[in-house]
Amino acid sequence: MSRVLLVDDEPSVRAALKELVQGRGWEPVLACSASEALEQLERADVLVTDFSMPEMDGLALLQAVRERDEWLPVILLTAHGSERLAVRAMKAGAYEYVPKPFDVDELALAIGRALEARLLRQRNRQLTVEHAIGRRLVFESANMRQVLAATARVAAREITVLVCGETGTGKELIGTLLHALSKRAAGPLVRFNCSAIPAELAEAELFGHVRGAFTGAVQARPGFFAQADGGTLVLDEVGELPLGIQAKLLRALQEGEIQPVGSGRVERVDVRIVACTHRDLRADVQAGRFREDLYYRLAVVELTVPPLRDRREDIPALAHEFALRYAERFGSEDVRLAPALIERLVEADWPGNVRQLENVVARMVALSGGGEIGPDAFEATSVPADRPAAVARGGEETRTLREQLDELERAVIARTMAAVRGNQSEAARRLGISRNTLTERLRRYELVTDAVEGAAATAGAVR
């Protein structure tokens, strides 16, 4: 439901506006002052405000709105004699003005046009973003819409951003968007996983090293800062960095300078930092595990990606998107998710968030024979109770993406080999790979005859 923010200091006018908005099927959001309106701005799809108000008039409110959301339509209600001021407001970016006392139908028509314009702008912007990042943005929830709108606003500004959220929520997508929508989009986008590198190697990986700097350094190598020069460096799980490296990272942020390991030379770099973490860095600062000065340097703007349990309305769209993606990848035909399965997915707990949902849908598609997939397939792919607690908490958090994809590829090949009764030429044709590639995969995954027969029985049971 579209939300209309109504701003007027007179209770009777607010009541009349509320009745108008509700009568057209929109949701009213009321504010008695400009300052109160700014506090509720993220809830609005269009703003209707009186021009003459104490403290901050409609023109000043319009200017404040434009600093926060340049695309939000603003409709001004102007009293007799203030038409000249209204024209100034139109030049400043107001969508339209309606004279008071307002005609109900005229104002409703203006709001309807503004909402249509808002929707069109959002869709055009989304298509532009999707083209830039090479993938679709799938969301229905209001809180994800707010996160993505804030991301778009922040992207164009040369500031450091801290992206917070549980593991698997999509922090890496926000990092990609911040780069794609920035002035650095033509430059490199480089990622560094702070938790994947041993502490003793983290400095060399970030800042580079010269030949002979340490055992095994047979040649000089540029670090991730140098690789990201002119672009964006995304620091995944920045809270895992050792304190010693944190101090050097702080210097790089403050001075724009790095010093490769083993070198006495300081190098200038032009890098925008986007830091991501699932940790509570404020608590880590209090506990002495994270530098306070570095935290404030990273969190110039802080964006929080909500967990999947707080945006369940996104689950159906995400599930259908993943099903289409993996059906195409695995060569499955006419894959559909049954309504009963969608209901089960929406009701389920997702401690591993979007990443876990993607893994589950991919596995169901891999083990299906095409056609409609029902709720029984979800039960068959759920995490067993006797799996380690670390896996149960996050679905597949303890396994790498490569390991998970290998498992899915093995299942698809086994199912295809069973369907063609071991005919490798036909299997290679259906999978869209060469006979030599298929032979290599069969050897890698140890898909000997008895294993293929077992996979065929499993696939038949799932169907």
UniProtKB/TrEMBL annotation:
Keywords of this entry: ATP-binding, DNA-binding, Nucleotide-binding, Phosphoprotein, Transcription, Transcription regulation, Two-component regulatory system
Entry protein name: Two component, sigma54 specific, transcriptional regulator, Fis family
PANTHER family reported for this sequence: TRANSCRIPTIONAL REGULATORY PROTEIN (PTHR32071)
Transcription regulation is among the record's keywords: yes
Source organism of this protein record: Anaeromyxobacter dehalogenans (strain ATCC BAA-258 / DSM 21875 / 2CP-1)
PROSITE patterns: RESPONSE_REGULATORY, SIGMA54_INTERACT_1, SIGMA54_INTERACT_2, SIGMA54_INTERACT_3, SIGMA54_INTERACT_4
Domain Response regulatory: 3-115
Highest taxon listed in the record's lineage: Bacteria
Molecular function terms from GO: ATP binding; sequence-specific DNA binding
